[in-house]
């Protein structure tokens, strides 16, 4: 099994099916949601694939159901509370976390669609947060 990462949201995905020569793919995220995406929206995530394969070996040894996704260590910014954001992201206090949630509520659908939208909150070094892979959408 090969896992992928959505370039915009950072979500770990597995491909369920492909059509039109592999240009379009039906994918599933670790929360079980299914959606379609263009093949250029995702990239192979070898780190996650390697981790889940080693976990599957341990699961089989324990005679448990093998996992399909590695444990999620990144915070989903759309579902997190301000306190969770402040606790999880270094350099973000409760006041800034509340600004992040206020920004989220002002957006269409009341959720972030890309991580880039967070850059309007100037108090945070978003490049280092994105590079440390602490959050996802």
Can you describe what's shown?
This protein folds into 2 domains: 3-61, SH3 type barrels (Roll); 75-136. The mean pLDDT is 90. It is built from 4 helices and 7 strands, in the order βββββαβαααβ. The strands form 2 sheets. Strands 4-3-2-1-5 form a 5-stranded antiparallel sheet. Strands 6-7 form a two-stranded parallel ribbon. The two termini are 23 Å apart. A hairpin with a 5-residue loop joins strand 1 and strand 2. It is α+β, with helices and mostly antiparallel strands and 137 residues long. The radius of gyration is 17 Å and the shape is globular.
Write the layout of secondary structure elements.
Blueprint: E1 3-6, E2 12-19, E3 24-29, E4 34-38, E5 42-44, H1 46-61, E6 75-76, H2 82-88, H3 94-106, H4 126-131, E7 135-136
Helix pairs in contact: 2-3
Q: What Rg, in angstroms, do the CA atoms define?
A: 17 Å
The total count of strands amounts to 7
| Continuous helix count | 4
Strand content: 15-25%
Q: Assembly type of the shown chains?
A: single chain
Q: What is the residue-averaged pLDDT? A: 90
Helix-strand pattern, N to C?
EEEEEHEHHHE
The low-pLDDT segments are: none
Distance between the first and last residues' Cα: 23 Å
Sheet with most strands = 5 strands, antiparallel
Structural classification? alpha+beta
Which shape, going by the Cα principal axes? globular
Keywords:
single chain, 137 residues, alpha+beta, SH3 type barrels, 2 domains, 5-stranded antiparallel beta sheet, two-stranded parallel sheet, 4 helices, 22% strand
